[in-house]
Amino acid sequence: MTSFQPADLKLLGDLIQERFGLTFEGVRQDILGSRLRPRLRELRLDSPRAYYEYLRFHPRGDAEFDRLPALITNNETYFFRETRQFEILIEHVLPERRPAAPSRPLRLLSAGCSSGEEPYSLAIALHDAGLPPAARSWEIDACDLNPERIARAREALYDETSLRACDPESRRRYFSVEGGRFRLKDRYRVGVRFFQSNLLAPGFALDRPYDVILCRNLLIYFGDAAFDRLIGLFASALVPGGYLFLGHSESLFDRDTELLPVVVGGSVVYRKTAKP
Ligand SMILES: C[S@@+](CC[C@H](N)C(=O)[O-])C[C@H]1O[C@@H](n2cnc3c(N)ncnc32)[C@H](O)[C@@H]1O
Asked: How far apart are CA 183 and CA 174, in angstroms?
């Protein structure tokens, strides 16, 4: 197996970063190479540079760009990941936000939702807190770059790995077994709307304001400029006083943003300054 030239991987990595925000610098260059190697073989291209040229100049380049997210994204996720954040949301954030918007549903966004485990965990937490969607008290939007993951999210049929943090009681209550896999029960799917989207596409804007945005374990894969752009997008999309939840290894420390860290329920979350 021939190894790829670092300069070729850099050229391709820069194009990917510009388009999707994802960075493949340093040690991650090898990850990019190994993820794309089978595709290059299929296209009979012998180097990342040739693939770069294919993407940029071939008549099927745009279609190839559409295929890329399924090849290069890390979609790792599972139900009730970082579960303390769901508790904080229910115990602290919702009681504060609901009186602020009494005449409309609370709007929540799971940005980078992968195959849906995160927004569905949110829906389950809301149900269990006595807030079913039929009461029109909340709406969840969920988006991801990878269309294959959005299709899986809509199907709501999961393997054991997605349920790794679920105890036997949760499995029984929230899922039905189907051919050795786990189907999320219909009542937890209502009120969750999925859409495919590149959050960094030029001109992309979230089309409505949100009370809460979860963007967990996505920014770790972004370069600096993309990180700042995405935080800017969230800052515009949040209502004054709205909250942003990041993953445990992500932080806005040292970033120039109007989203300020606040400690809620013992964890750091970010809040858009409320208008005086
Ligand atoms: C590691 S998963 C995290 C899933 C979930 N938030 C969690 O914490 O379990 C990161 C997701 O971000 C998505 N993603 C990466 N770049 C994106 C972009 N530019 N726009 C939208 N989603 C993106 C990936 O496709 C992937 O499914």
From this structure: 8
CB 210 within 8 A of CB 108: yes
Structural domain containing residue 28 = 6-72
The 10s digit of each residue's pLDDT in 19-63 is 999 999 998 999 999 999 999 999 999 999 999 999 999 999 999
Q: Quick one: 67 and 99 in the same domain?
A: no
Strands 181-184 and 157-158, bridge-based pairing: antiparallel
Position 1 scores a pLDDT of 60
Final residue before a domain boundary, out of 72, 102, 121: 72
Residue from 17, 73, 195, 196 to probe ligand 1 pocket by mutation (most atoms less than 8 Å from CB):
73
Give the pLDDT confidence of 136-187 residue by residue, as tens digits. 899 999 999 999 999 999 999 999 999 999 999 999 999 999 999 999 999 9
1 part of a folded domain? no
Sign of CA dihedral 112, 116, 118, 123: positive
**Cα(215) to centroid(ligand 1), Å:** 8
Q: What's the number of domains the chain is made of?
A: 2
